[in-house]
Design goal:
This protein is mainly α. The chain is about 70% helix and about 0% strand. It has a domain at about 70-100 and about 105-175: Serine Threonine Protein Phosphatase 5, Tetratricopeptide repeat (Alpha Horseshoe), CATH 1.25.40. The longest helix has about 30 residues, at about 5-35. It holds the Pfam family Zn_ribbon_LapB.
Length: about 375
């Protein structure tokens, strides 16, 4: 059978015409989509980049009304509401997203996480806890566990906090043994003596290098009238946590005096002071030094090693001046000047306090207070 070239001659123009029509249809569809694309969305982005949040919110609301199926617009709008503190509106946006049946699994988890953040920022801890619990097994589980931990610490629900810390430890989110020890110490503070001792010993096993369980246990033993046991507990604590000696020095001195172990305590504190001079350790040594003149001289020796207004004030308080009638005035001025230097300062947020805290009252960070005072930092 002969091949008819006329079909080829007719087919080429027809194919060209069909291709041209198809391209025109694609261009028309593109123009229609461009016209339908919410211009308000781009206006909202422009306002957002210029930090004009009020105008950005209005533009995004307009965009959502024109295209209610766009999930990204809902997320953007919800986040803007949350940043502005309009938590009720943020909650409504994210709850609307969760009510949609066409939402993908990943987007549903994202909306659930956003809703939990809304409740958390609004201070609705019960609802935030419920929302965060629903994120178990999702990509947001790690963030949800950290948020739950913060909630339980804030509400001082230490058993729940301990449970979450165990999960975070198991998931490789970090080492939470130090926090576990603090949780046990917090529970011990409100428990009967026998139960408190058990909890504190568990805390010592959970975090051997943490000084708090030993300090709290020694205080419990002192209250029970066993000063010798308290002294032994603090002696072991000094060996296990040398950086915490300034915090341990005062309770160790008290336990030594009560148990008649002054000589042993003095030798131990002098050894640690030689290795790392500290005002609190120096004060403990002075309290244990039987020779008053030798004790006063310790402040001068400290000044030879490190300039310290606090040590100078302590030394001057025990000295007689040529014009003794002015001594109280001079001493009062010095005491006022050194007060800020004897505070403790949080290494995380800079919050200063007269006493040492295991958890910062300002930023809620654990173990953020160094054992040394401001003057020694």
């Amino acid at each position: 059978m002969d091949f008819d070239l006329s079909w080829v001659l007719w087919g080429l123009p027809i194919a060209f015409v069909l291709g041209w029509l198809a391209s025109r249809l694609d261009l028309r569809q593109l123009r229609i989509e461009n016209r339908q694309a919410p211009k308000a969305y781009f206006r909202g982005l422009n306002f957002l980049l210029n930090e004009q949040q009020d105008q950005a919110i209005d533009a995004f609301i307009e965009a959502v009304q024109k295209d209610p199926d766009t999930t990204e617009l809902h997320f953007a709008l919800g986040n803007l509401f949350r940043r502005r503190g309009e938590y009720e509106r943020a909650v409504r946006v994210h709850e609307h997203l969760l009510s949609r049946a066409d939402l993908s699994r990943a987007e549903r988890h994202r909306a659930q996480h956003a809703l939990a953040l809304d409740f958390l920022k609004a201070g609705l801890l019960d609802r935030a806890e419920e929302a965060l619990r629903k994120l178990e097994g999702t990509a947001y589980e790690g963030q949800a566990l950290l948020a739950l931990l913060a909630i339980y610490e804030r509400s001082r629900d230490w058993p729940q906090a301990s449970e979450i810390a165990h999960k975070l430890d198991a998931s490789g989110q970090g080492n939470f043994s130090g926090r576990q020890a603090h949780y046990l110490c917090e529970q011990a503070a409100a428990a009967p003596p026998e139960r408190a001792e058990q909890l504190l010993r568990e805390a010592m096993q959970a975090a051997p290098g943490s000084p708090r369980p030993a300090i709290d246990l020694a205080a419990l033993q002192r209250r029970a009238g066993d000063a010798q046991a308290a002294f032994k507990t603090l002696t072991r604590a000094i060996e296990e946590a040398p950086p915490a000696v300034p915090l341990i020095a005062k309770p160790l001195t008290d336990a030594a005096i009560a148990s008649g172990s002054q000589a042993q305590a003095l030798e131990l504190l002098q050894k640690n002071y030689r290795a790392s001079p500290s005002l609190d350790v120096l004060e403990a040594i002075v309290a244990l030094e039987p020779d008053t003149d030798a004790a006063r001289a310790l402040y001068v020796k400290h000044l030879e090693r490190e300039p310290s207004l606090v040590a100078a004030s302590k030394w001057l308080a025990q000295e007689k001046l040529e014009h003794e009638q002015f001594h109280p005035l001079v001493q009062g001025a010095l005491d006022h000047a050194v007060k800020p230097l004897t505070r403790y300062r949080c290494a995380a947020c800079g919050f200063e306090a007269k006493q040492h805290f295991w958890q910062c009252p300002g930023c809620q960070a654990w173990d953020s207070y160094p054992a040394r005072r401001v003057e020694e930092l």
